[in-house]
Every structure is written in C-alpha cells, then in structure tokens.
User: Fold this.
Amino acid sequence: MTARTHIRVLLAAAAIAAAPPVARASEADAFENKIVPISGQLYGKGGRFELEPLAALSVDDAFYAKYFGGVRAGWHFSDFWSVAVTFQGGASQPTSSTSLCTASQGCKAATPEQLWQVPGDIRWLGGAEVLFSPVYGKVNVLASAVLHLDFSLIAGVDFIESQKVLSAAQAAQVASSGGTPGNVGAPGMHLGLGTHIFFASFAAVTLELKDYLYFTDIGNLNANKLQNQIFVELGVSFFIGQPSR
Amino acid sequence: MPLPRTLLLLLLAAPGVAGAQGLGLDLGGPQKKAEPQKAVPAPAAKPAAPMTLDAINVAGRSAGRQRMDAAKRLYDDKAWESAAVGFDEILRDRSIAAEHDEARYRLAQSLEKLGLYYSAFSRYEEILAKGPQGSKFYYNALDGLFSAARHMANDRVVLAGTARLAGEKMPAEYQDRLNLLLARYHYERGRALLESGQAAEARRELEEARRLAGQVRPGATSAAIGSDVGNPTENLAARARFVDGTALYALGSEPQALDAFKDVIRLTNPRKTAQSDARVRELAFLQLARIHYEHKQNRYAIWYFGKMPWGEPLWLEGLWESSYAHYRIGDYEKALGNLLTLHSPFFVDEYFPESYILKAVIYFENCRYPEARSILEDFTRRYEPVYQELVRLTARKVPPSTFYEEIEQGQKAGDADRGSLMRKVMKIALTDDAIDRLNDSIQQLEKEMDEGVAGRGRFARTALGEDLLQRLKADRARLVEEAGARARQKLEAERDDLKRLLEQALRVKIEVSRKEREALEASLAKGAPVNVLRPYRYTTAVSDEHEYWPYEGESWRDELGTYSYTLTRGCREGPGRLSSP
Amino acid sequence: MPSISMRAPLRTLSWLLVALPLAVHAQEMPGLDLSSPAKDKGKVAAPSPTAKPAPAAEPGTPLEKAVGVPGEADAALEDRVKAVQRKGFIKQNRFQLTAFVAPTVNDAFYEKLGVGGMLAYNVQDSFAVALRGAYWFAFKSQYVKQGAFAFQSQLLSSQLYGTAMLDGIWSPVYGKFAWLGKSIVHFDAYVIAGGGLAWSATSGAPRNEGPHVAGDLGAGIRFYPNDWTCLDLGLVGTFYADQKDTALPGNIQKVVAITLGVSFFVPTRFEYYYP
Assistant:
C-alpha cells in the first residue's frame, strides 16, 4: 500500500486530535480546571435530529471525477457524539489524466473500452457513520464577523457500488457486443473530518472531507486492490428539536 | 472608621501560614535521637495489626522500658495503630511514669502517622504546655506541631496553640514562622479588641503584632525548613510585611500601610524571586486598591484591581469592587462589563446582590429607565425570597448548632437543588471567611472521626480509640457551636443588609417612575420626546495584542473580566475613553 | 438630561450606593470557590437561547414614545458588549523556525512528500515574511501501472525535486475553541503567498533548463501550545511552469500539499506592550 491520501487524512486528523491537549493559551485562561469553558453555548446539537442535503465532489482522482448529491440524517446523543446514515450518488466524468496525447495526432479522450479497464467510476454509496465532535469554537474574521463552528472526526462503514473494472480482453468483448461492464458492489469504510458552521440555531453549513476505502478487482492486474476515494461534501444541516442542556 | 475587610483579609493569608513545611530537623538535646522525617501516609484501608504486644524478654531491663521498646519496634515496623495503642497503655500505667514523657511524644507521632492530625496536634500541645524544662521532647513536639498544623484547615487552632510559645527560643528557621504566627495572633486579638471598643488594649496588641512581624528575617521562606511537596513555598518575609501593613492600617497609619503593601509586591515579584507567593501578592494588590478607593483615588484603585491575578480566589471580589471605582469615574462601559462577568452563569452561585443596584443606577443615569426598572424587578424577584428566608431562619429560637446543620444540608444539595433557596442562603453564610474555615475544620474532624478512628475496626474499640473519639466529638461540638453562632450573626447581618438593598431598590424604582412621569409629561407637552436617546459610538478596533469578541449571550471563561459595554442609547455623551486597546 | 434640581438627590443616592461596599461588606471576606472543578459547576444552567441583538421594538404607548422601549430581556444583548481579551500568544518581532512535511493531495499517480523548513520573521503580529524550502520525494501509485495497462501509454509527470520560496504570511483571522468541554485552545488562520524557484527533472541534465520560476498560495491554521512553539496545519499549492516532454507543450504544474509543521520562536518569551 502506498502512502495514499487516507494516510494524509489520518495524519491531518491526528494532528488536529493531538493538538488541543497540548495547545492552549495558558496565560489567557486563568480559570482552566476551575470552571467549564463555555456557558450559555449558543449552538447546541445534543438531543437533536439533523437532516442535511449535500453535494459532494471527489478530489485527487486518477481516472474519474465524481459529482454527487445526497442526503444525510443523523441523531446527536450529545454535543460530542452522534450517528448518521448517508446516501449519495450522481455522475462521474473522466479526468484530464485520461487524455491520450501523441506527437502526430494531438490529444484525444480515451475510449470507453479503455476507460472500462480503470477503477474509480463510483455509481452510488451509502453507509452509516459515527461522529465525535470534541471541539466547539468561534472564529473572528477581520474583526467584523464571528462564526461559531465545531469540528468532528468521522468514521463509518459503507456499501459502494461502482463500475466493474474489466481486463483488456473483457473490455474488447463487451465493446464488440455493444454492452456495458455492469456494476459491482463492495463493502468499505470511511474516515474523515467535518465542520459545522452555524448561522442559525437550527441550521449550519456543513463541510466534510472523507476518505472512502474499499476493495475492487482490477481485471488487468487480476488482483483485488484497495481504492482510496476522497470526497469533499458540502451541505446545509437542519437541526430539529431543542438542544438538551 | 470601621475596620473593613482589609483587616480580615489577613485571615486569607492563613492557609499557607498554617501549612508549615515538612520539618526534618532534630531539635532535641544531645540525648535525643534524630527523628527521621517520614511522609505521612494515607489512613490504612485494611484492618489494623493485632492489638497485643509481642512477648517481652524481661531479663536485665525494667518493665516500662521493655514495653516502650516493644511499642517503638511496632512504630518502626509501621504498625502505627498497634504502636499508638502501646504508647497509650504505657501512659495509662501509673507505675511506669518514667516512660510517660517519651510515650506521650511517641503517641502523638503515631497519631500523626495515622493521619489523625487534630488528635496529634492536641497531644503535641499537651507536651508543649509543660514547657522546655518539663519535657525532653519539647522541641520534637514543636516540630510535630508545625507538621500536623499544615494539614489542618483551621488556622485559628494553630494560632491559639502557637500563642503559648511566645518567648520561646528556637532555631532561626522555626523562629521566623513562629514570629509570623504570633504576629497574626496579636493582630487578630487587636482587631477583636478594636471591635469591642477597647482601643488602648487593641493598640498594644497591634504594636506587638508589628514588633513580631518586624523580627521575621528578610528573605525568610518556608523552604528553609524543608520542602513540602504539594504546598507552595511561602514567602515568610512578605507575609510578615503584610501583617505589618494591616496592623498599620488598623492603627490609622495609612501611608505607611501603603508602603508596607508595596514592599510585599516587591518581595513577591515573580521575576525576582522564586517564592512569589501568589496568595499574599494578590492580597497586597487588593489592599492597595481598597485603600486608594477609600480615599477616592479611583484610577489608582482601578490600576491595582487590574493587577490582581485572574482566576485567584479574590479575583471576583476585586472585579466587583472595581466596578464601583469605574462607576465613580464615569466609566460606565467598564463597570457594566465587570457586572456582566459577575452575572454570568459561571458565577450564578456567588452572592453580589448590590451589583444589580449598581447596574440599575448606571442605566438610570443614562436615562434608560425601562431597563433600569427591569433590572430592579429582576433584583427583587431574585432576592426578596432570599430575604424572607433569612428573616424566617434568624427569627427562630434554636441552638447555634442548628444553623450549622443547615449549612451542612445546604452543601449537600445536589444539582437539582442548585437554585434552591436553602443553597443560596447557605452560600451566603459560607462567604464569611471564619465560617468557611470552621466548616472545613468540622468536615476534617468528621473525616478523622469516621474514617480515621471509627473506620479502623478494632482500633476504634480500644481505650485509645474511644478516648480519641470522645475528644474529637467534643472538639466538633465546640466548633459546631462556634460555626453556628457565627452563621447566625452572619445571616442576621446579611438579612439587614439585604433589607437595606431592597429598600434602596424601591427608592431607585420610585426615582425611575418619577423620571418616566416627567419625561411623559414633557413629551406630551411638546409633542415629541424631550430626552433624545442618542446613539453611542462603538468600535471593534483592538490592538494587535488583543482579540475582539462581541458578546452574543455566550460566555467564555477566558473572557471573564474583559467585557466592555457600549450603551447603544442614552442621554449622555459617551464617556471619555480610557487608554484601552 | 436631568435638571440640576433633580441631580442632588440622584447624586446622594449614587454616593450612598457607592459607600455600600465598605459598609455592607465590612468585617467579612466573601470567598469565591474556585478551588476545584466541583461537579455542581459542571452543568451550568444556561440562559434560554438568545438570538443576536434585536433592534428595539417600535414604541407604542405615549410612555414608550417618551422613554423608549426595552428590547431584549437581557439588556446586555440590546446594547453592544464586547470582550477584549489578550491574545495568548504574541508573534511580533520574533523569528520563527519551522520544520514541516507536506504530502501532496492532487496527484493520484505520482504522490510526493515534501520535507522542508521555513525561516520567518514576524514584522507584525498578523504579518510575517518567510523563506521556505523543501525537498520533494516522489512515490509511484498503483494507478500508474493500471493506466499504462489500460491506455497502453506512458504517463508523463514533472518530477519536482526542490523548491525555494519567499513568502508573505498574513493572519487576519483568529479564533478559539473548547476542547472536550475542558480546555480552551487559541489558534489563528493565515494566508501565505509568494514566489521563488522550483527545481525539477528538466532543471538538470540532459535538458539543463535550470530552475523554474514558481509561485505558491495557500492557507492554514496554527495552534499555540506554549510561549515558544506552535503546530501548523496548512494547504499550500506550488505552481511552476515546466515542459514534461519536448514533444509536448509546457504547462503550469500544480503541486498541492497538506503541510504539517512544528515551529519554534525566538526569542522564546514575549512581552505585552499594552498594559
């Protein structure tokens, strides 16, 4: 396994997770260990149901870029812990890396037969996840706007349906018959980071970065390979119910 | 002139004073063996060793000596319960009186090892009462007295004990601590005499306090008598100078008192000394602030209030008092900001009823009559029930112990009862420093009784155990009586003060109504509002060293004390800006 | 404005109230229990959720027209209240030495790992100039082989070896967060931009094109654990022109990497200029 992006995500998550216990404004927080950090928190999630329509964009793609839409529904046990289920699907498009350039003929897009031999064409994915939100904070932008936000660590399990990855011979056969490769599903998991940026007591902009991991057969290599798929998900979360305090 | 809290603040210096460092020096004569300094263990959880002594070989030694040796072996083997019982049995046997002197000291030591500090302290006192000529273990007992005292919450017991040691000669490093304790003792006596109107006697006591404080050597710290893990090293010289300052203030020599407190600040500068002694440093800043405030030097007072370190026990009190100083100079922004901290949910249990009056007056002075009215109504809604409860409590003809029992119940009220009247009222009682310390002592005594003695199984059923329980119960009863009596006085005083505040609130409300009526009449006559509520300026600009956060109803603990108001409307021009970032 | 005749009783009342602290609280020392994180302070009864300050309601009755209408139940929300707190960390006039690693996030075929350092001087607390340099190591991913198989072609890439940049760092954003409801962590967010040189495979033999002009742009956040260190997390893109193959036109190469760094500040302590 190469040093893939999911390790980068883990590193980033570890950096954020490790930072707070040591990173603190010690002189500015004279009441540490004496009273709670915040009282009268404006935006609470505990005891509330969250519904989020979202749009997702894949990043760091080798062969296919994905443009998905989806929905997520979750329940917040407390301000720190929540669970959610999510489903998203949409369209994919070959990346510029699949352009084939020759000195004599210039650049042209790869053929469908060629594209059937590479992974990454995800159709839809759905799963369940657990979120841990150890952080609630605020940001002052240019002394004019204060944003309240939280940060979450995300882990979940998924089922991912993607286009079957054919070998060259299989692709030629399918192409000649005028068919399509078909889809194949695989279980997977994901890790990620997320943030809610609150703009109302009942709503927030949600931004998440998730790395989906799943195995798929690569026809040309006759091997089952681990796939990394990073999605940036942007949505608007609606919180239903009153926060528990 | 009444002697306000400046004098009482001295009491707050007590915990550290009472907390003497561990003592490892052998102060005994040449015939005495050096007593190894051992760490005081937590009370043993398991049942004690058997209560009988080993078989004794009587050949060639007196019976008393043999019993003493056997008990000492148990002590050396860390079987402190058995050792204590053994020493106690020696004391009860009149036929071996020659061993009683050592047995008395060893018993005290054993009790200290068992964590029975009050019991040990009283045993050490018994030895010290005999004087240096009356016991070979006098200086060892002195060592033990300081050692046990640092575990005791109530310094008054320590003060009373050390008062008897006045005039005794001892090594310099102990002498400093003793002089400091004695200085505080004479100061307290002087203050009490002043309160009772005996001015001449009080003056003598205060002068004696000054004399003793002056005998503490420059640079003296508690580190000289051994380190004490867990207790910060005290700057004895600074504390002595603080006692001197408070005595000077009580004697009416305020300029000299100021100099003394400034010396304390210099002596505890953390950049120049390792023994910065945050406690006495905070007290000195508070004293300096109060004296300047008393003499209407408000900006100096504000400066000193601002130097009080954040998060320390007196910080909130200083914040409250500085609100008045800010009000006096017309800095309503900062005054209201401080009050916002006081009224934040973090400090909902704290008792500052007058802060609502001040807030209402500020709004009143800015012609914000509806807001002033609502603040006063909020004050009345919060504190009228408290006043009624105080009236009911103080009208009862009950013994003082009943008051203390109610304090205990109030403390045990859980989260569900957090807003309960009882809890509020008992919190009022515990704002009195003396009651708070008595409460700590009583809890400590109860723990010593329940866990230290009664919880030790067979040890509790020995003659020594029963004697200890009896003495501790008597001590507890005495402290409960004292705490209850003080609580009654405190509640009566607070009842009267709260009544005055409620009356003031009513008077301010009447003024508000009058102003509203006048404003209405004037606007009806003119057909337009007369007192135009002009908008104020508000700036978000801060220096590079600061962060600006608008208050939106969410309180962050690191913002406490940094709030600044801008009244968006009012009949005054915005107050002149201080040099704030 | 109150007339003079009304001022006297007002002032008397005011001074009476002013005199209260000494009189009322004589002989006592209220104590604030901050000694331990008692459980009963854990769940503080929060006020009911409040919205941002609402404009004062329109006056209705003649009295309200005369004296105004109170807006929020909490007067503090009707007025403007600000907290002006000291920053927990001052960077001005301090040197900053940073060591970082930077895995790329935009190349699925040839992943790169940058290892480098930065020397910065904080001219202001919110602005610094910096010299940044990094060595880059490339790792071939599984997709190179898959692509070669599928497309029967060779994947060209610009092999980046090193970068040296002169940057400006601007921190207009500061913030703080509560960690697990216990500690408060301050951070700031920065934008970094600048220019410099990038060395790739074409810089040396056989093409000997020398270093390429490069620019970088990015953003990040920094956390401050004590007076002399900080933890840095950023996303920086480095852009330089390169021609991967003489048969192909040159284009702008983009290397976008997450940076994870640790910084040390000299001097190791700071002083507040303002009281």
Remarks:
- The two ends of chain C are 35 Å apart (CA to CA).
- The longest helix of chain C spans residues 4-18.
- Helices of chain C lie at 4-18, 20-24, 62-67, 75-78, 142-151.
- Chain C touches chain A through 68 residues (CB under 8 Å).
